[in-house]
């Protein structure tokens, strides 16, 4: 059966879903029902076995589940085949393929994703994934949010789940900025509507920063900054405003820019970028990279972002 994945805490609701959550937790822990809205896979010092393995940087949660089901994981000397077993990593000794699981060093990767790559670990259709671009990283990192196949630009990947949560939680107001080319000329009223928020199938959007970059021929080029990260959000916003996105590039995550990165390259986030992303959400943009920090390149460099094409 497919694993139940809890809603993100800021979207959690009371009612039937929350009640089902509590009932499910009660299956694994007699005291869990009392905890109610707590996340299924994380309970203070205790985490589910699947999560302990992925947090240790050994692999994705899907991989962790398959290793557990295959009997490759031992806890305190016994094989455990239940991925939802509660584990205290400070107390319990976990072995994967007979080797002790060790805590990972936090890793923060900034990738300049080209179009044509999907933001998942494996694609059933065999298309290239962002992991093809970061092959030389020996720890498992997860993407913070997603970029569509047809979107290029900045993507952070990390093994620090708290950091990832902070970046994706709209309440922390970390802006993601996009340059886009629309299929039609958009009037000022449409831009105003986008700024205030438009109605999407999954609810109204939060206020956005919208700037007309230029109109060229029958196209409008915009810069939009949003603090949410819903599925295909920018494309859907533009559709709600009566146009279509022809090209979409994510140029900033908070104050972090693509400076120094060519398409397909990655580097680690600089300490000042990390501090800015985890500190004040109101900081303005800074240069993305110290001049001497290394840039990794998996593929041949391509052109920098340009929505004119
Ligand atoms: N909004 C979209 O529509 N697509 C992306 O890839 C990112 C934001």
Span of the ends, CA to CA = 45 Å
Overall tally of domains = 2
**Percent helix among the residues?**
10-25%
How many strand segments?
Answer: 19
Structure keywords:
single chain, 309 residues, alpha+beta, Structural Genomics Hypothetical 15.5 Kd Protein In mrcA-pckA Intergenic Region, Chain A, Pseudouridine synthase, 2 domains, 10-stranded mixed sheet, 4-stranded antiparallel sheet, 20% helix, disordered N terminus, binds uracil
What does the secondary structure layout of this molecule look like, with pairings?
Elements: H1 16-28, E1 42-43, E2 46-48, H2 49-55, H3 61-69, E3 73-75, E4 78-79, E5 86-88, E6 94-96, E7 99-100, E8 108-113, E9 142-143, E10 151-158, H4 161-168, E11 176-182, H5 188-196, E12 199-200, E13 203-204, E14 209-216, E15 219-226, H6 233-240, E16 245-253, E17 256-257, E18 265-268, H7 271-278, E19 296-297
Parallel strand pairs: 10-16
Antiparallel strand pairs: 1-2, 2-5, 3-4, 3-6, 6-7, 8-10, 8-18, 9-10, 11-15, 11-16, 12-13, 14-15, 16-17, 18-19
Helix pairs in contact: 2-3
Give a verbal description of the structure.
The protein is an alpha+beta fold. The protein folds into 2 domains: 13-100, RNA-binding S4 domain (Structural Genomics Hypothetical 15.5 Kd Protein In mrcA-pckA Intergenic Region, Chain A, Roll), CATH 3.10.290; 108-297, Pseudouridine synthase, CATH 3.30.2350. The chain is 20% helix and 25% strand. It is built from 7 helices and 19 strands. Strands 8, 9, 10, 11, 14, 15, 16, 17, 18 and 19 form a 10-stranded mixed sheet that branches. The longest helix is centred in the N-terminal third of the chain and has 13 residues, at 16-28. The chain starts with 15 loop residues before the first helix and ends in a 12-residue tail after the last strand. Mean pLDDT is 81; it is low at 1-39, 280-293 and 299-309. Residues 147-148, 151, 232-235, 248 line the site of uracil (URA).
